[in-house]
Design goal:
This protein is mostly helical. Helices cover 66% and strands 2% of the residues. Strands 1-2 form a two-stranded antiparallel ribbon. Helix 2 packs parallel to helix 7. The chain is globular, with a radius of gyration of 21 Å. About 4% of the residues have low confidence.
Length: 179
Amino acid sequence: MPIKLLPKLLLAFALALPALAQTTLKDSLAKHWKTTEDFTIAVARLMPADSYGFKPVPEELSFGQLMLQIAGANLGACANASGMARPEIPARITQQLRDEKADIHKDDAIAFLTSTFDFCNRAVASMTPEKLDAVVGPANRKMTGFEWLWAYFTHTAHHRGQAEVYLRVKGIKPPDYVF
């Protein structure tokens, strides 16, 4: 190989490295869903069990209801996006979801959150480029698979942000967010 070509090949290789190092959209979704799982469960664990019924004002959901809201919404969104069958909601959780005045049990809420994030992580792992681009969902709410995952990632962040405020109102410092 002529020595004059070596710098050009090295330059071409150096310019190609960023493209080779890029992650896919699916990889990014998987990374961020795992991060949001870890962070949301850390927030859920910090609230004492006897404060899962805490509401800063009567019009708001209780802390426990927020956790169940996040978990239930995750199931629907991840099932819609991936086409995977939505897991059954445990009977005790179903009862707590139906009755606004029911006590939400911390251990139940964390177990439900954990199982729904596990489901979502499997759903994200199953996504192909075609599934990410496919328009899916009920007739009144069609979105691409990517939109379902991103919208409900954002939904989780919204309610988790509320939950962090609830912690602060109770004098509890929320965990530090890790990117």
